[in-house]
């Protein structure tokens, strides 16, 4: 993970210094296309609805929406300047920031309330039973973080298990094939993993309320240079939630198709992903001392990343959270 972050920081510098092509970046204040990434997670599939229903255009913003089969690739794309914004978790944002990336959270898409899971084969009934076992997980990302939280709560550490580093889709497939004892995965890949007869979730994000918030994260300079486009993206999000509320069957059909699952499977994810309204966004951005407050979570996650040796030092938090656009949303 440290090598990845160092490489990402170096590539960011190369991207910034190595191009003089006027097409590579629009001038500050001038209209520009927003390159936005998202990947397979129930809290981010609404972006597909926004695209198919013309809601970006309704809000006067031109968007190049990019879907990533690999969540890690989307993180890399934002850190290396190949995206202007990405849908990603708070802890993965902090990991990138610790490597030198300048990123700003402008919107809470959702909180994971069960759709991130540690799933184990039959005979493993608790996290404590993982001692000496092999767990497949996408290293350095949110479900690795969930695994570490669960191990810590059970009185264990990462040294008590063997971590097999695989992309999340490959990790779920390896577990289904019986190649590992447990897997850390997020929906919709949890559906794949739970296809193993007798398997079950032994820890989920519901056990750690507020620990896994998901966001729309921009490259920090883009926010300063193109606030109108950022505002339009935030406005589009809330318009999309309204459209989904008014057209639930059609919305599920769009999102399930993008996720490669049935409508029924997609509906089963509802309780495990709590989509945030504007009011919930405003509350989350308020400074406070509870897991519901983003600044509290950011400090907690930053410390955990260092303690778990995922990063060398706590990332700077100045400029990380910007509630301006949520406050201005209608």
TrEMBL record:
As given in the record, the signal peptide range reads 1-22
- Keywords for the protein's UniProt record, in alphabetical order: Signal
Q: Which InterPro entries match?
A: ABC_SsuA_sub-bd
This chain's protein is named: Sulfonate ABC transporter substrate-binding protein
Q: Which NCBIfam families match?
A: SsuA_fam
What high-level taxonomic lineage is stated for the organism? Answer: Bacteria, Bacillati, Actinomycetota, Actinomycetes, Micromonosporales
Q: Does the keyword Signal apply?
A: yes
Annotated transmembrane regions: none
Where is it predominantly found?
A: periplasm
Location in the cell reads:
Periplasm
- An annotated GO cellular component: membrane
**Which CDD domains does the annotation name?**
PBP2_SsuA_like_6 (cd13563)
Q: Which domain of life is it from?
A: Bacteria
What terms describe the molecular function in GO for this protein? ATPase-coupled transmembrane transporter activity
* Protein encoded by which gene: ssuA_1
Similarity comment: Belongs to the bacterial solute-binding protein SsuA/TauA family.
